[in-house]
Amino acid sequence: MSSSFKWGIIGCGLIAPKFFQALENTGEGHVVAAASKSMRRARRIQQKLGIECAYGSYAEMLEHEKLDAVYIANTHAEHYQSAKLCFEHNLPVLVEKAFTRNEAEAEELIDLAGMKNLMLMEAMWTRFNPATVKIRELLADGAIGEVIRLKAAFGVKMPLSMKTMPWNRMYNPYLAGGALLDLGVYPLAYARMVFGRRPERIGGSAKMAWTGVDKTSEYHLDYGGGRRADLMTSFVEQRPRDAVITGTKGIITVPHFSGADRLTLTRPGGAPEVIECGANGFEHEILEFHRCLREGLTESPGMPLSETLDVMRTADALRTLWGMKYPGE
Ligand SMILES: NC(=O)c1ccc[n+]([C@@H]2O[C@H](COP(=O)([O-])OP(=O)(O)OC[C@H]3O[C@@H](n4cnc5c(N)ncnc54)[C@H](OP(=O)(O)O)[C@@H]3O)[C@@H](O)[C@H]2O)c1
């Protein structure tokens, strides 16, 4: 396995440059090619970032380039086909969240990667940030006892205007838009991590945009015995992205949980202890992906595919409750 990883990017939008820079920061690899459905977008990112090659077709990039891995950063509706295409070229893939449109697509990708013995990981970058790693350690050490409650919100104001439709993927059902898949997967993945299992019962409600996707949604996950997660996401309201994890012996508060660099641990009778954890960024997930490639792993123990699948299953259950289907499902 090479010591400097050659990456290709699929999808030349807003997040691709952030990945490019983070990869450079790791010192472990470079983006050598970028592919878009539009040659104009591919060229634009090529010029902006100084990428060697640009392609106006994903397939062409995969046919012509010698890559070690591919970062998939197009719409949620395209992740499944794009990852399948990479597998046909025997390439490991890092797939942006939301992993796919639904559980069935996620399951198929996981099976395919397994059959081909290829590394596959959801780009749930928050999972590898030092603050999240610290939380996992604290929970495993029983620092707050047994987790009984999680409260987390993730609201980012993203107005829907006629001017930005149909390009605006956030509200577009054909592109698997909606607050649930765009933002909700963060608290859902957090709940899966904190409780360590799937919920026993799932409840929730959503307010729909006129396009047919959720613009604000709330999720109540019941883990039995009074343990529960109350989560909320919104495109309409800006919300503090804080998470509060309550255990039988203490509380962990995480300001801005999706990109946290510190947390507060409070135990009965003690003063709140602020724990500084270090900078967050995409670098951590990239380093983990490289480590897995070097060690011949096909999935990351830090972001197991079973957890990705559980999150998609929970999202499906919520959409079923709301009667929200994507075209073609
Ligand atoms: N990890 C994070 O912090 C983070 C943050 C933001 C987004 N994301 C995830 O990263 C992925 C890309 O997000 P982004 O913000 O970069 O998205 P974006 O800028 O809106 O678009 C990314 C790419 O998706 C395709 N696309 C977007 N709108 C389209 C449309 N209307 N019709 C056809 N194709 C369209 C295009 O792919 P082509 O160029 O190939 O045609 C575009 O370059 C999503 O899965 C998103 O949830 C992650």
TrEMBL record:
Ranges where the GFO/IDH/MocA-like oxidoreductase domain occurs: 134-252
Keywords linked to the UniProt accession: Oxidoreductase
SUPFAM superfamilies: Glyceraldehyde-3-phosphate dehydrogenase-like, C-terminal domain (SSF55347), NAD(P)-binding Rossmann-fold domains (SSF51735)
Gene Ontology molecular-function annotations: nucleotide binding; oxidoreductase activity
Residue ranges occupied by any Gfo/Idh/MocA-like oxidoreductase N-terminal domain in the UniProt entry: 5-122
Pfam families from the UniProt entry: GFO_IDH_MocA, GFO_IDH_MocA_C3
Family: Belongs to the Gfo/Idh/MocA family.
Protein name: Gfo/Idh/MocA family oxidoreductase
Origin species: Tichowtungia aerotolerans
Biological classification of the source: Bacteria, Pseudomonadati, Kiritimatiellota, Tichowtungiia, Tichowtungiales
